[in-house]
Amino acid sequence: MSLTFPHRGRTALAMGSACALLTLVGCSNGDSTSPATTNASPTATTAGPGGTRIVIENFTFSPANLQVRPGTKVTVVNQDSDAHTVTATEDKVFDTGNITGGATTTFTAPSTPGSYSYLCTLHPNMKGTLTVT
Ligand SMILES: [Cu+2]
């Protein structure tokens, strides 16, 4: 049974170094978390062109004049409780149809540059302009 004593000694040493290693690993993990969080910001900025949107609130389109690139997907958020539409005045080159209160929809901007006025067919006094450049 003479082996018992040296074995206990080694175990105590191994545990000591294991604790030191865990501390080091814990520190480096904490550092690597920060750059990952920073990377999320450029991704959100890249989504900008796709994040183009018109908000309808209090029977008003906002912004009243939205500039987009040809073929951009435009999101329309209806924050009113009434239904609204975003309908191009000329030839209905784009038309969301009825957007029920609180709903969100999308339409694709024309591929030809120009200034497109639109209105809400349910409330024709609601007007806006989509400028494609
Ligand atoms: Cu309306």
Brief overview:
The chain is an alpha/beta fold and 133 residues long. The protein contains one helix and eight strands, in the order αββββββββ.
Notes on the structure:
The chain has one helix spanning 4-46, and strands at residues 53-57, 60-62, 65-68, 73-78, 87-88, 104-108, 114-120, 123-132. The protein has a domain at 45-132: Cupredoxins -  blue copper proteins (Immunoglobulin-like, Sandwich). A hairpin with a 2-residue loop joins strand 1 (53-57) and strand 2. The longest helix is centred in the first third of the chain and has 43 residues, at 4-46. 32% of the residues lie in helices and 32% in strands. The strands form two sheets. Strands 2-1-4-6 form a four-stranded mixed sheet, with no helix packed on it. Mean pLDDT is 77; it is low at 16-50. With 133 residues, it is α/β, with parallel strands linked by helices. The protein is globular, with a radius of gyration of 30 Å. It has one helix and eight strands.
What assembly state would you assign to the polypeptide chains in this entry? Answer: single chain
Could you name the ranges where pLDDT drops below 50 across 5 or more consecutive residues?
A: 16-50
Order of helices and strands: HEEEEEEEE
Using the coordinates shown, work out and report the CATH topology of the domain at 45-132: Immunoglobulin-like
Binned, the helix content reads 25-40%
Major sheet details: 4 strands, mixed
Number of helical stretches of at least 4 residues: 1
Please give the CATH class of the domain at 45-132. Answer: Mainly Beta
The amount of beta strand, in percent, is 25-35%
Give the integer mean of the pLDDT values.
Answer: 77
Biggest sheet strand order reads 2-1-4-6
Small molecules held by this entry: copper (II) ion
User: Which structural class is indicated by helix and strand composition?
Assistant: alpha/beta
Total beta strand runs: 8
| Alpha-carbon Rg, integer | 30 Å
